[in-house]
Amino acid sequence: MLTILDFIIYAMLAVSSPDFGNNAMIPTKFTCHGASISPALQLGEFPAQTKSLAIIVHDPDAAHPGGFTHWVVFNIDPTRNIPQDFKGGVQGLNGSGKSGYTGPCPPSGVHHYHFMVYALDARLNLSAKTDKVALEKAMEGHVLAQGDLVGLYGDEK
User: Fold this and answer.
1) Is residue 139 part of a domain?
2) What is the pLDDT of residues 117-126, one digit of tens each?
3) Domain ranges, residue 92
4) CB within 8 A of 82, min separation 6: which ones?
Protein backbone atom coordinates (compact mmCIF):
# COMPACT_ATOMS: atom_id res chain seq x y z
CA MET A 1 0.00 0.00 0.00
CA LEU A 2 1.40 3.40 -0.99
CA THR A 3 1.55 6.22 1.53
CA ILE A 4 2.24 9.92 1.11
CA LEU A 5 5.86 9.17 2.04
CA ASP A 6 6.21 7.15 -1.15
CA PHE A 7 5.84 10.30 -3.26
CA ILE A 8 8.39 13.07 -3.50
CA ILE A 9 6.69 16.35 -4.25
CA TYR A 10 8.71 19.35 -5.39
CA ALA A 11 7.61 22.89 -5.89
CA MET A 12 7.22 23.81 -9.54
CA LEU A 13 9.87 26.10 -10.95
CA ALA A 14 8.87 28.11 -14.01
CA VAL A 15 11.53 27.84 -16.74
CA SER A 16 11.35 29.87 -19.96
CA SER A 17 13.72 31.29 -22.54
CA PRO A 18 13.71 34.55 -24.49
CA ASP A 19 15.25 32.50 -27.33
CA PHE A 20 12.43 29.97 -27.90
CA GLY A 21 9.07 28.99 -26.45
CA ASN A 22 8.03 25.78 -24.72
CA ASN A 23 7.55 23.00 -27.30
CA ALA A 24 8.85 25.36 -30.01
CA MET A 25 11.83 25.06 -32.35
CA ILE A 26 15.25 25.94 -30.94
CA PRO A 27 17.00 28.51 -33.17
CA THR A 28 19.96 27.18 -35.17
CA LYS A 29 22.37 29.43 -33.23
CA PHE A 30 22.08 27.07 -30.23
CA THR A 31 22.65 23.85 -32.20
CA CYS A 32 25.53 22.02 -33.91
CA HIS A 33 24.53 23.79 -37.14
CA GLY A 34 25.16 27.17 -35.50
CA ALA A 35 27.41 28.44 -32.70
CA SER A 36 26.41 25.56 -30.35
CA ILE A 37 26.04 27.93 -27.39
CA SER A 38 23.51 27.49 -24.60
CA PRO A 39 20.33 29.57 -24.85
CA ALA A 40 19.36 32.05 -22.15
CA LEU A 41 17.04 30.74 -19.45
CA GLN A 42 14.71 32.71 -17.22
CA LEU A 43 13.43 31.25 -13.97
CA GLY A 44 10.41 32.01 -11.87
CA GLU A 45 10.46 32.34 -8.11
CA PHE A 46 12.31 29.60 -6.26
CA PRO A 47 12.26 28.79 -2.53
CA ALA A 48 14.13 31.16 -0.20
CA GLN A 49 16.21 28.21 1.08
CA THR A 50 17.77 27.70 -2.37
CA LYS A 51 21.56 27.50 -2.09
CA SER A 52 22.34 26.53 -5.69
CA LEU A 53 20.83 25.65 -9.06
CA ALA A 54 21.56 22.76 -11.40
CA ILE A 55 20.68 22.29 -15.08
CA ILE A 56 20.47 19.12 -17.14
CA VAL A 57 19.66 19.29 -20.85
CA HIS A 58 18.63 15.89 -22.14
CA ASP A 59 17.33 14.44 -25.41
CA PRO A 60 15.31 11.29 -24.64
CA ASP A 61 14.71 10.73 -28.38
CA ALA A 62 18.39 10.07 -29.16
CA ALA A 63 19.36 6.59 -30.35
CA HIS A 64 21.75 6.15 -27.38
CA PRO A 65 20.43 3.93 -24.56
CA GLY A 66 18.64 6.31 -22.19
CA GLY A 67 18.94 9.24 -24.61
CA PHE A 68 21.72 11.81 -24.90
CA THR A 69 22.70 14.48 -22.38
CA HIS A 70 23.70 17.84 -23.86
CA TRP A 71 24.56 19.74 -20.68
CA VAL A 72 25.25 19.11 -17.01
CA VAL A 73 25.95 22.16 -14.86
CA PHE A 74 25.57 22.60 -11.10
CA ASN A 75 26.52 24.83 -8.14
CA ILE A 76 25.09 27.81 -10.00
CA ASP A 77 24.52 30.74 -7.66
CA PRO A 78 20.76 31.30 -7.31
CA THR A 79 19.65 33.69 -10.05
CA ARG A 80 16.54 34.13 -12.14
CA ASN A 81 18.47 34.86 -15.35
CA ILE A 82 20.99 32.51 -16.95
CA PRO A 83 22.58 34.24 -19.96
CA GLN A 84 23.36 32.76 -23.37
CA ASP A 85 26.64 30.84 -23.55
CA PHE A 86 26.64 30.41 -19.75
CA LYS A 87 30.01 29.27 -18.40
CA GLY A 88 29.32 29.65 -14.66
CA GLY A 89 28.77 27.03 -12.00
CA VAL A 90 30.56 23.73 -12.39
CA GLN A 91 30.30 22.48 -15.97
CA GLY A 92 29.97 18.69 -15.82
CA LEU A 93 30.29 16.09 -18.55
CA ASN A 94 27.81 15.89 -21.42
CA GLY A 95 26.97 12.68 -23.30
CA SER A 96 30.16 13.02 -25.36
CA GLY A 97 32.25 12.97 -22.18
CA LYS A 98 33.18 16.63 -22.68
CA SER A 99 32.71 19.55 -20.33
CA GLY A 100 29.96 22.08 -20.98
CA TYR A 101 27.08 22.50 -23.39
CA THR A 102 26.86 20.78 -26.74
CA GLY A 103 24.06 21.85 -29.05
CA PRO A 104 21.30 19.65 -30.45
CA CYS A 105 22.33 17.69 -33.54
CA PRO A 106 19.85 14.90 -34.30
CA PRO A 107 20.69 12.69 -37.29
CA SER A 108 17.04 12.63 -38.41
CA GLY A 109 13.60 13.67 -37.29
CA VAL A 110 12.60 16.25 -34.71
CA HIS A 111 13.88 15.61 -31.19
CA HIS A 112 12.70 16.97 -27.82
CA TYR A 113 15.31 18.72 -25.67
CA HIS A 114 14.42 19.00 -21.98
CA PHE A 115 16.05 21.97 -20.22
CA MET A 116 15.54 20.79 -16.63
CA VAL A 117 16.40 23.24 -13.86
CA TYR A 118 16.62 22.29 -10.19
CA ALA A 119 16.65 24.56 -7.11
CA LEU A 120 18.70 22.82 -4.41
CA ASP A 121 19.03 23.32 -0.66
CA ALA A 122 22.81 22.76 -0.84
CA ARG A 123 25.91 23.20 -2.93
CA LEU A 124 27.12 19.84 -4.16
CA ASN A 125 30.59 18.51 -3.44
CA LEU A 126 31.16 17.10 -6.93
CA SER A 127 33.91 17.44 -9.50
CA ALA A 128 33.75 18.68 -13.08
CA LYS A 129 33.91 14.98 -14.08
CA THR A 130 30.28 14.59 -12.94
CA ASP A 131 27.80 13.28 -15.51
CA LYS A 132 23.98 13.26 -15.53
CA VAL A 133 23.62 10.02 -13.54
CA ALA A 134 26.04 11.13 -10.81
CA LEU A 135 24.41 14.57 -10.58
CA GLU A 136 20.93 13.10 -10.29
CA LYS A 137 22.12 10.79 -7.50
CA ALA A 138 23.84 13.66 -5.64
CA MET A 139 20.69 15.81 -5.90
CA GLU A 140 18.53 13.18 -4.15
CA GLY A 141 17.06 14.72 -1.01
CA HIS A 142 18.21 18.24 -1.97
CA VAL A 143 15.67 19.30 -4.64
CA LEU A 144 13.38 22.09 -3.44
CA ALA A 145 11.84 22.94 -6.81
CA GLN A 146 12.23 21.88 -10.41
CA GLY A 147 11.04 22.91 -13.83
CA ASP A 148 11.35 21.82 -17.43
CA LEU A 149 11.40 23.76 -20.70
CA VAL A 150 11.13 21.62 -23.84
CA GLY A 151 12.70 22.79 -27.08
CA LEU A 152 12.47 21.03 -30.44
CA TYR A 153 15.08 20.69 -33.12
CA GLY A 154 15.66 18.59 -36.21
CA ASP A 155 14.60 17.85 -39.73
CA GLU A 156 10.86 18.49 -40.05
CA LYS A 157 10.54 16.42 -43.27
Assistant:
1) yes
2) 999 999 999 9
3) 8-154
4) 38, 40, 41, 42, 43, 55, 76
